[in-house]
Amino acid sequence: MGEMRNNAAATGKKAGKGLIRGQIFSLDFFKRNWVYVVFAVVMALAYIGNKFTCQSSIQELIKLKEDLSNAETDLVVSSAAYNSMTRESEMVNLMREKHLDLTAPEEPSYHVKGK
């Protein structure tokens, strides 16, 4: 069991020295595995491009959500202004300001219910 640890440590040291000396990733390695190297580079570029596209889409989504929130706020404000203008007292004041010869009824209208 001690020998296995020593072999693993020795193999790791040899791999580290080989990497530093250029023996693992030598020109011969790239000649033999050029297809895999090109595939790995293309996949890395595709990953980077996809990440950029995703981040751009997320930023646009955040901007659109903010615009939607602003539009909803404007809707509430406009709705409140419309509701205040349609009140009976506002209508009476508006008739007076425009000098129309109209009067608001004093009694509510009657609804006839059928049998």
Could you give the topology of this structure?
Layout: H1 2-21, H2 27-32, H3 34-85, H4 88-97
Structure description:
The protein has one domain (16-97). Helix content is 77%, strand content 0%. It is built from four helices and no strands. The model has no long low-confidence stretch (mean pLDDT 82).
The global form is rod-shaped
Low-confidence runs (pLDDT<50, min 5 residues)? Answer: none
How many individual domains?
1
Order of helices and strands: HHHH
Key terms:
115 residues; mainly alpha
Summarize the structure.
By secondary structure, the protein is mostly helical. The chain contains four helices and no strands. It has one domain (16-97).
